[in-house]
Amino acid sequence: RSAAAANEGEEAEVGMVFVRYVRREVRALTVSDREALFGAWENIIRVKDLKTGQGLYGKNFLPMTRLMTLHNNLAGAKDCDHLHDGMGFLTSHVQITRLLEASLQAVDPTVSLPYWEYTIDVEDIVANENGNFQKWSQLEIFSDKFFGATDLSTATIKTGHFKDLSV
From CA 64, how far away is CA 76, in angstroms rounded? Predict the structure, then answer.
């Protein structure tokens, strides 16, 4: 317990706590873990100002607008794409993903960013939908339970946690 919580005359124990985050496939998250993740994500979308966000959540907070701008700036020039050409793809995307996770953890230290094992969906579509990849938009991952459904005519997520977010 912390020194602040010690009763008068008692000794407080001081020590280090090490936290290990486990990365899971997004569909393997418990309901409470998924809600915590998306709740934190909603905050980094809602709080658009870096100074305000860092005032609320600490120095690791980056608003989603800042993360999206970073991605777009690094990938935006067709003649010099720093994110998608060559070996930069893995290292650069890992770094942006880590910045996203650090921002999420600034809002809620109990969350970790899951991964999406989309090859499960590819194999399912090939095996059960005769390779009809039009079924992709009907995946559970694009339901209200996860990221929400996109309105293709407006390029906006129309339901779920990310409702009204432009994609």
Answer: 17
